[in-house]
Design goal:
Helix content: 40-55%
Strand content: under 5%
Strand order of the largest sheet: 1-2
Largest sheet: 2 strands, antiparallel
Amino acid sequence: MSSPTDRPPARQRRRTRATRARILDAALRELGRNPDSSLGDIAEAAGVARRTLYTHFAGRAALVRGLTEDAMRAIGHAMADVGALDAGPGSGRGAGEGSGPGTASAPDAASGPDAASGPDAASGPGTASASGSVSAPGSASGPGSASASGSVSAPASDYDPASALARFVLTLWPVGDAYRTLIGLAPQDLGPDHLSELLAPARETVAGILAEGQRRGVFHAVVPPGPLSAAVEAHLLALLGTVNAGIWADDGSGAATSALIAAGVDSATATATVRGLHAPGPLPAARRHH
């Protein structure tokens, strides 16, 4: 018969999870403001003692891993949402399987490197997991690539790359802070190779959308999809920086419209496409590039 002390009471476990989430929230704010913030600064911002922070995270590297896992979990869920939205009626695909190119699969639960960094390590801000496991984004596939079942699927004839790109930006915009902080921290704390590995699914998704848009003449083909995807990403991160600095306010609509224009969609069509995603009704077809 197990002793009552073998497992902490439910109330204590909830308190532990809440404290860990508060620390990660504070870390996201403080490190987003100043990447050189100390653990003492983060503990103060979280309203906890430094020893409490060390109970959950052994050091800066463990804390950054925790932030990384939360950021990738949030991005993975957003990408899964994009896939579910792209699986429209009659597409023959289930929720989470996008009809467009490069759509990410739903995140798989995986054991993260910081899963055991603290007692009852649990999910961070905005997540519902209580196990501390990490849902990493599924791998993205390009146009006409093989699905998980081995079958090869091509984008539907009515697939609209402009809407797909706008929807991707609108869905990921709310987790943009996490994405931006991750890019700022990971190279120095986790290494650039690990960062590229973590962000590959999101980047491949955008590159796949851009490639299909170029193939259909919706986006310009002045540069290949990969470099164009990197340019769009840098553009969006710069816009997010102005929002964080209080220079600009946007719910994602302006950013999505700007991304479409950067990809080669004319201003009027880009604006109408983004507006159409906020209201039911047919969307205008983007003018083709010749």
